[in-house]
Sequence to fold (1412 residues):
Amino acid sequence: MTELQHCESYSDIEAEERLSLLEASQGHSSYVDDSIILEKVSVVNVDRTKVRFCSVHDSESNYGGFSLPAWFGRRKTEESQRDIIANDSVYNSRFNYANNHIKTSKYTFLTFLPLNLFEQFQRLANFYFICLFILQLIPVISSLTPVTTAVPLIGVLSITAIKDAYDDVQRHRTDNQVNNRRSKVLRKGCLVEEKWHRVQVGDVIRMENNQFVAADILLLSSHNPNGLCYIETAELDGETNLKARQSEELTNQLGQNENALSQFNGHIVCEAPNNNLSRFEGTLSWEGQNFPVDNDNILLRGAVLRNTLWCYGVVIFAGRDTKLMQNSGKTKFKRTSIDRLLNFIILGIVFFLVCMCLFCTIASAVWETLTGQQFQIYLPWDSIIPTEPISGATLISFLVFFSYAIVLNTVVPISLYVSVEVIRLAMSFLIGWDLNMYYEKTDTPARARTTTLNEELGQIEYIFSDKTGTLTQNIMTFNKCTVRGVCYGDVINETEQEVDPEEDETTAHLEREEPSFALITDIFSRFLIREATANIQGVDYQLPNPSDERPQIAAISTNGSLGARPKTQPDKPKSSNLKQPNAAPLAKKEKKVDFSANPMSEATFDFYDQSLLDAVGSNSDVDEFFRCLAICHTVMPAEKDGKLEYQAQSPDENALVSAARNFGFVFLQRSPRSVTISCNGKEEIYEVLCILDFNNVRKRMSVIVRRDNRIKLYCKGADTVVFQRLKAGHDDEVKTKVQDHLDKFASEGLRTLVLGVKDLSAEQFEDWKASHHEAAIALDNREEKLDAIYNEIEKDLQLLGATAIEDKLQDGVPETIANLALAGIKLWVLTGDKQETAINIGYSCHLLTDDLMEDPFIIDGENFDEVQLQLVTHRNTIQNITSQYQRSRDSLSMLTLSETYSDSDDLDPSSYVDESGRSGFALVINGHSLVYALSEELELLFLGVAEKCNAVICCRVTPLQKAMVVELVKKYKKAVTLAIGDGANDVSMIKTAHIGVGISGQEGMQAVLASDYSLAQFRYLERLLLVHGRWSYYRVCKFLRYFFYKNFAFTLCHFWYAFFCGFSAQTLFEPAFIAVYNLFYTSQPVLALGVFDQDVSAEMCLKYPKLYTPGLMSSLFNKKEFFKSAFQGFFASFVLFFATQGAYHDKISWNGEGLSDHMTFGSVVATILVVVVTAQVALDTSYWTAFNHITIWGSIAVYFLLQFSYNYIFGGAYVGSLAKAMSDWTFWFTCLVTTVVLLLPVVAWRFYRMDVHPTLTDKTRLVQRSQKRVKPKPEFRPFSGRRSRRSVRSGYAFSHQEGFGRLITSGKIMRHPHQGPFSLHPNPPSQDGGGGAGSQVSSSSESLARNTKANKGSRGHHHNHHHHHQKASHGRQRPGQGGLTTPMEEGNNLAINLEINGHLREVGIPNRIESE
Fold:
């Protein structure tokens, strides 16, 4: 036997996902013939903690050449590499690779019943009741018919099974939609349409423009020149910029020749399926040549083909083996915290039941020994009982234990689960029916894709959100600009104040009306309400001053919230409210600029400042500004349906070129050596001498062009980079004005770029070109030399101006984030975008504000020590600030002798407010630093810093890192998490979080398919949580409290009766009543309570986000609340039983009939029990609907109806008992007294609590009732956040990676001559002038050097960038903050306090958790 072992390394989460897929799925791992030895091994090492996956490939005999079935003679192994021959299905089928079928459903028609029952009996209550049902089948120990248990058990199992079947049918439908998509596949030399699930590994498929890629494929040929194609990978990594992929030159010659493609038999050996999106390794062998295959040759499933008419490729990975599905993670069974608490409570109840049974067992033995044996003539023992007194009593007591387990079984509520499921199902429908979460534009309602997590929506503490497509619309718009110190784009109204062009005019000025006389006379009587409302939001209000009464009255009359939120408009930057002396002429009205005179303008382009268009042609600075935008880029033009379109490396660059186009400077075409633009209808051709491309190290790009023997360098980049390269002492006034405008743009959350120009002489350029050539061919320090050469030419620039681009947020995002923050919910943004972009969006959506105590903490270290140092530094900063706050707070408390602050304040720095009104912290961490921060040694330190921050932004993270961040918070924080996203790159974190929400966006439906809830817009998340989530949690908690109360009140009556029946397990109630008590008599009112009840209206829930906090603290239902409900039920049963027993003991009616018999007594207790628990649910109901009235009063009527009909019509054993009792006044008096005795203390306690210790909800309900009496007029409610007012902060944000410069200058990106560029003229004039090879400076070696510089040199950049941010972060030095101690100075003795699973623990740095 020959063995070949191969081990691959994976992180913990990857290993868990792979193991789960191996165990749960068929066809994921290869089944390899024993005759095959895989020799070539490709290893992909990812992440940190190593888990060994080893495969053993056997070279045993081939069974004498006898061909065995595919499933016989093969054994499951972990695939170590993939071996494929294109168009050879016979060869590929030997490995049994996964097909392209996707399955997210759980059941099939055959497996549904056994699997579903297996899952349901994992619930302790269901398992308990099936055991109880078996006991009831034994006549010796059962005093109840098995029907009493069988009916509710079958009902629970059936309803739950129907719900699970419905959910799985929906999954099957969505799976079918994906699997039945169409794809064109080559079959026997012909191109045929196949469904996606029939695509196999090794198939050659054709893809066309704007189509999703069906599987992971190796690109063979493309319509574009040199085998190029462009893809958008938003579903994979969240990036919307186009990425270029290229086929091998030899395979590209196949073109779209179907015969040649069908005969292609390339042999591909590559890595095994894995989740690494950024790397691919393999080889292609064809026609005696070997070609390396890397990520630039691969199109991944989930990507969208753009700007490419067609391309062909061979399938490498299909179905669950694709990198998209490998990053999707495992579908986990999610349970709410209330479900977990219920399991614990059920165990406690079972223990309580056992204790009661043991007590009754002992008491029965004593009674039978002392008393029972004396009455055997009346109560004979069964034949199986020994006649000897001691042994007989012992056996009887043993049997009594099981008898009381059956009699008292209702203390473990089986109907609880089915009732909860019904309530959850109803609340799921209410979510889908909410028109306030319906997005009419796309006809998309909110949808609850699961029915088991609704109440968890009311307990969310952490939200993990994607950025692109979730917070933003993924649309870049040219918003404003400044040209030589003149700002354009501001829209000014008649009062010379800047306004938002897209803001509704009705919200700009709120009309204030005079208060009514009723309000004036009632102002002082309603001050209590105002004070209560102020307490809800934490706003301090003063008593009305008699000398200033009218403003106080106006504040009430115009503020529908009665002072709940100060009615201020969102803050504007100060500069925006002033008319600048040299600003462009003011636009008097919000009117769009008319670009119809430009035949190349775009109808979708909007601009609101006419003065900029007027300046075109009359202002040379403006012309040069737009000329720079039209020339300095790497955009490629394309023609589609006779219209000019652009394909850009980033949406920012596309927006800039599009802006120039609409203002008359149209980029028409390019060749490797020229750029053609149209300036106000006149064509200009520029010879491209050199392109200094953009990358994240340079943060700028430049282009050197020549026209009419004039050489110019155009440059654009970040303000911090370009300003350093401006000509010293030149145009200082313009620099100052532009800098002010940049600060203003950045404060508005706009993405900025600065433009510069430089005239070059021929001699300057020739000298520089020679130096550049020497640096490009240097063997040593090539990157440093090229960087120095670039800096040499990119200096002494003349400032042209700056652009401001808006990455448009979705509607309502800032308001939603601000109100969620008020509710106590922390938002973490996990995005694949780079740091500058994420920070700008953070300020735009008010996740980051200037009210922070410190500038956002930046973590961008390149190694373990740097990340650790940054984390400890920021931790010490937070510790110093919070300790100062604590000392000042203690001093204030000593002066006022008050206890205003709660203990929770000590743990939540987000509530700290300094003397300047600043509060809270924010953290920004990059993906490469997150690798170290999530390591075992630093994960708790990272979490210790992040938990103290109001907002956390993780940039450049992979889908798996998103899931790991969510898992970290779930692991160490006793908090409920929610993940929201719209792309396939968010699926992993959506599945990992307690609740996943998918946005029905522009990035496909992968996130929606994996989610628990789906929304059309991010803003609907506010209503989903603050309204539906809060209501669901409130309703379920109230339902549970009442349910346990009524069950204890019902069951314990049997226990009290045991003292009067010799502990013989005789039931107090008739068996029919026991069977239907929870099914008919008391189920409907509590269901109506759980479905429709609400303590405050939806408007109030949104108006006062603090009302959400009880869910965060789990204060409405916990162990304490359970014991309260259980004690109330215990007390109710005690009063019910003994009050009735006292009234009917030896009771004789007026005509001498006895009323103290067992049946009458049981009927009276049962009737009073139904009346009392129904009155209690009426008392608990806060919101009355028709359903509540019908169910509550109808339940009492149904009780009497069923009692009489069952006993009289069907001949029940208790016939006439209740009628006889009701004919006597004792019944009515006992019923009234018992009800008053049980309900009066509850009413008194609630009045006392609301009057002396009111909750936020009590105060809000007081406000709500007052508003019903005096209805306020509808008014605009501004959101509770504030606009950021960053004074000096760059708004720079641009492309994610190096642009198309290398492809442009090499000529590979250009179309063939016969394809023809787009032009205004049929035959564009040629341009003479030295466009030879000698003038083309860019070379492949130079581009390679620049690319290497961008990747390897980024470390030094990030290191410097870190020091820049660190200096900014600690600019506001505080007392006691100067000497921050690092771990290197203190060794391993440094420790932090961290709240882990609800308990404060001291964790050392570097830290490792010890087992508790």
User: Anything to note?
Assistant: The longest helix spans residues 1020-1058.
